[in-house]
What we know:
Rossmann fold; 15 strands; globular; alpha/beta; single-stranded DNA binding; six-stranded mixed β-sheet; ATP-binding; Glutathione S-transferase Yfyf (Class Pi), Chain A, domain 2; 2 domains; six-stranded antiparallel β-sheet; binds adenosine-5'-triphosphate
Amino acid sequence: MHIKSLELVNFRNYSNVILEPINGLNILVGENAQGKTNIVESIYFTSSLKSYRTFKDRELIKWGFEKAYIKEDIEKQNSFNKIEVLINNEDKKAVRINGVKNLKPSDAIGMVNVVIFSPEDLKLLKEGPAIRRKFIDNELNQLRPKYHHALLQYNHILLNRNNLLKLSFNKPSLKTEIEVFSEQLAEYGSFIVEARYEFIKKLSMIARLIHRKITNGEEEIEITYQCDAGLFNSKSQVKKELLNFYINQIDKDIEKGYTLKGPHRDDIIIRINGTDARIYGSQGQQRSAALSLKLSEIEIIKSEVGEYPILLLDDVMSELDINRQKHLLNTFKNIQTFLTCTTLNDINAFHFDNKSIFTVKQGTVKKQ
Ligand SMILES: Nc1ncnc2c1ncn2[C@@H]1O[C@H](COP(=O)(O)OP(=O)(O)OP(=O)(O)O)[C@@H](O)[C@H]1O
């Protein structure tokens, strides 16, 4: 899959720009604060209909304007698709696919598959569980539209349940309503847990092979699902067991005023040579493991969609040592890649036949 053309109107610091990238390595080079990441962000946005930098869509609109527009022509499995997104200053967006208007934003999710790798991702092991849940959720959102829906519903119900828990202190009469929310949480939660379980099983298998290569066979990585609601005895029972789990913890939840446990607290355990790399891994080991996870993400999309995703590398090269850079660059020979950097020195050590360089300066892009 690759982008044939990208047009931005009043998006971040761009008034109007059209970029025609190649199906190879596209290097966006320029000084700081010129608009390189803004391009990457716009591509990410067409994939998930949200930014990875802000929750407020209105921040994407060029200052002083009311709307931002992104148009992307994509070739996917030998067919051509056009995605258009209009963002307004009330954080609402209108989506058009191949000219068909008034689609729900969720209809566009998964049309374009991307994998983004930024310095943030190097903290995948170092930081708390939220960043690892985000990693899993971003991947599953792209691959399974139903997952995206289930997650939105789960979070919405969780918020309502938590509000009710706060009101319930010394008011046992609200317990029945909490039980109703618990049932709804179990409904969507079981879908989330099952999808995560399957995904992590696949991730572990692929990451093991990639990690062996990155570490020249010195390290074995093992990834397992740490499900806050415990282990489920059988797949068909997940919903029932999850419901019991929420019901059993109601009193404790009321005492605390929020839902203590559940899929919203899940994590993944990443072991290297048998020890928990989140706790005991050296900085170098943690970075290599983060790289393995990201490279596995690319392979999982390839195996599910049948085509490689688009790879977005934002400011990440200078954060990796030469050996890790090599592994990253080797993988994207067959993948349309957008790489941002402030100097070409970051990649001059590597040879590429299929590359295009774009200079980014104050909201303009010029092909070299
Ligand atoms: N909504 C907006 N309207 C206009 N300009 C904006 C808006 N949001 C951000 N900018 C401007 O965009 C520029 C930042 O662009 P971007 O983050 O793409 O930089 P960059 O080239 O990737 O820089 P770096 O190398 O430092 O990461 C800044 O000058 C910022 O002021």
